[in-house]
Amino acid sequence: MSALRDELAPRILPVVLANITSPYPYHDAHLTKRGEPPHDPIAAHPAFGNSFDWHSSVHSHWTAVQLLDHFSARFDAPPEIVPLEAAVAHNLRASSVEAEIAYLQARPSYERPYGWAWAMMLAAAAHGARSEAIRQCSGQLRVMADWIGGAVVNWLGVSREPVRHGVHSNTAFSLGLMLDAARVLERTILEQTIAGRARAWFAGDRNWPQHWERSGHDFLSPGLAQADLMRRILAPNTFAAWWSEFLPQLRAEARILSVVEVPDVADGHIAHLHGLNLSRAAMLARIAPALQQPALLEHARRLYAAGVEHAVSGDYLSTHWLPTFAWEAAVSIDGSFPR
Predict the structure, then answer these.
(1) Please, are residues 307 and 277 in contact by the beta-carbon 8 Å criterion?
(2) Could you tell me the residue ranges of all domains in the chain?
(3) 215: helix, coil or strand?
(4) pLDDT per residue as tens digits for the range 2-48
(5) pTM of the full predicted structure?
(6) Which residue in 231, 299, 127 sits closest to 119, CA to CA?
(7) pLDDT at 214 over 80
(8) DSSP string, 272-290
(9) Can you tell me the distance from the alpha carbon of 269 to that of 133, in angstroms, rounded to the nearest whole number?
(10) Exposed e or buried b per residue across 134-170, where buried means at least 16 C-beta atoms within 10 angstroms of its C-beta
């Protein structure tokens, strides 16, 4: 059986290429102060002024690096791989990333925590990229990640409660990505800070109200995001014990495991539910081997099948961001239980 990523990679490659080379439409959450000139988001974001919004651009570049790595040693690379590498290298040139760092420093809560998390993941991916052109971009990306890492430590130091809903401000999902990146980039203080805050916030949680999931425009499962974070920081036996109390008597038909129907694919908020299917698939595929529960992987496969087509075709409100979540799900499922 071929790996899901082998089937998916050539399909999402042209979508990702189009995303990171398309400046409009663009949505920017920019705060304009009195006396400032009119804001031009494309000029303000020379690296990430594409893919509809800043965070989608950042994780689209992360996905592009994953695809470049995937095809680097293959003879069947699609022709789009050449312009994809060129577009990533152009967008992530040092002067452009420097401008993005300056923008973040001037607006220290911009894109916190979701955009921050993906920016750290992008820096980690570029650091180990197989493409020499992409590795040459890693220096300034690492500077950006270092600034974000310091900001995260400060933010977690003053935050008293996590955000537990299923959209961009969800705390557990972003902390999981940041933790992965901190380990690759060897940022020990950041890693320890995230792990400590995660334990303080989530280790004592019991009887997660799974029947409340989902809300109407989630693209993340708050419960599974929390579990996926705890998987990263707890020893396997400890995590299994935590899971059994967090989601006791989890049934196969539970809403938290079930495919979500999407009633209006042209509504940008409702279309988030395609991402919910895919992000649940990725999380369950990572949780399954930690618990030695192959049944969870079968749920992941069904969720992936329900969402993947919307990552490669359909409305731009889906295709500008879903390739990342489809790729994460495919890679997680492929790596869950060796066949």
Answers:
(1) yes
(2) 1-26+41-202, 208-339
(3) coil
(4) 699 999 999 999 999 999 999 999 999 998 889 989 999 999 999 99
(5) 0.97
(6) 127
(7) no
(8) HHHHHHHHHHHHHHHHHHH
(9) 36
(10) beebbebbbebbbbbbebbbebbeeeeebbbebbbeb
